[in-house]
Design a protein that fits this description.
By secondary structure, the protein is of the alpha/beta class. The chain contains 14 helices and 17 strands.
Length: 400
């Protein structure tokens, strides 16, 4: 089945809104055995929308649209589809009843007249429920083709896809497709590829290797005739991948490095505190966003000057002898924040903000410290800090 996505909205063409819906759907469709071939964006112009939709309808088995289902005058997806199909829109009494009840539930006695357009259908369309909003989707089926219209707000679109659209498309698939992602750090994209690609010489399973801000990701996709066969193929593939990359793998699928670190700290009964200079609080912010971070993260300080470092517990003699951007300063920062926040472990990050100096990362546990030079990119630096901490915890060096 060939598919294409049409993202609708002037805000997309103006650059005001990123097209995250298309990105999300592009990841979802291959898992259903659907071949995504085209992605288009079009503004809130009915003639242009009809042109794009006609082209998609002629060349694709499945067309998915997002956006343009609101109640305002520039929400024209329904009108464009009706014109393309040469069918008349009419108000569906059941949709109108449900929508009026929803407005009453919201405490609004009268529903605006403009919302009536959200209660319309054409003969070829069936409504797709939208519990998250006022705009039902459309499922249009005609001449062996399918057109699915979903709302633009991601929260509404994601739920409609997960609970309504994906199950219906899954029933049309003749195969079972599974995918899994492994996340690594410490090797280049080329090095990961050289180790992993020879393991999968055929198209099934198929492997992809991608450079991401938190390291190199590998995604394995398997296609089988049954769930059991797919699981067996995936288990075999994972064994091969871990056989060559296990020491570099820190997580899978939607797991973040921060959450992986948090889980390890909790398992070992340890806590962490951070003092940052060069990274400007990125590490502290990432750790704070982990659900339940209060159980393992004591807190962090941003110390952009030598004075701030010393007032936060770093010995003045370290700064005078080695400078505020040094391996010694990083270790002193890590120890100072560990003591100040009564944490099991401390991390110190310091460096020079121009392109001439070095950046240093240190991890201390009260008995020993490790200070090493690391990448100047701030995001990669914070990733490196977490990965070094992960290695220390797994090696037993993080024990307090």
């Amino acid at each position: 089945m060939k598919a294409e996505i049409v993202s609708i909205g002037r805000e997309l063409l103006m650059g005001d809104t990123a097209d995250t819906n298309a990105t999300y759907l592009a990841r979802q469709l291959p898992l259903l055995g659907i071949d995504l071939v085209w992605v288009s964006q079009v503004g809130d112009n009915q003639a242009q929308m009809v042109e794009v939709l006609k082209r998609g309808w002629q060349r694709s088995d499945l067309v998915i649209t997002t956006g343009g289902l609101g109640p305002t005058g520039d929400d024209l997806t329904r009108e464009a589809i009706a014109e393309m199909m040469d069918e008349q829109m009419s108000i569906d009494p059941h949709l109108e009843h449900d929508l009026r009840e929803r407005f009453q539930h919201y405490g609004m006695r009268d529903m605006p007249v403009s919302n009536l357009k959200q209660c319309t259908l054409i003969a070829s369309a069936a409504a797709i429920p939208n519990p998250q909003g006022t705009a039902p989707g459309w499922w249009v089926e005609k001449d062996g083709r399918v057109l699915v219209c979903m709302p633009g707000p991601p929260r509404e679109m994601y739920e409609m896809w997960e609970k309504q659209v994906r199950p219906r498309l899954q029933k049309r698939s003749k195969s079972v497709i599974q995918a899994k992602t492994w996340k690594t750090f410490g090797l280049s994209e080329g090095a990961v590829g050289e180790l992993a690609f020879p393991l999968f010489p055929t198209d099934n399973p198929s492997l992809g290797v991608y450079a991401k801000p938190d390291g190199i990701h590998l995604q394995l996709k398997v296609t089988a005739s049954t769930e059991a066969e797919a699981r067996e193929m995936m288990a075999t593939g994972e064994k091969k991948i871990r056989g060559v990359l296990d020491r570099y793998i820190w997580g899978t699928d939607d797991e973040t490095l921060e959450s992986a670190i948090g889980r390890l700290l909790v398992e070992k009964g340890l806590t962490l505190a951070v003092m940052e200079d060069y990274s400007g609080g990125l590490l502290t912010a990432g750790l704070s966003e982990v659900a339940g971070s209060g159980t393992f993260f004591k807190g962090g300080l941003v110390v952009p000057t030598d004075e701030a470092k010393m007032s936060s517990g770093v010995d003045q003699s370290v700064i005078e002898q080695h400078g505020g951007a040094s391996a010694e300063a990083a270790a002193a920062m890590a120890e100072a924040i560990r003591r100040q926040f009564s944490a099991s472990l401390g991390i110190g990050i310091t460096g020079i903000s121009d392109q001439t100096g070095s950046v240093y990362l240190a991890i201390v546990n009260g008995r020993s410290d490790q200070a090493i030079n690391h990448p100047r990119n701030k995001q990669r630096l914070t990733t490196a800090a977490l990965f070094e901490l992960r290695k220390a915890l797994l090696d037993g060096k993080g024990n307090a």
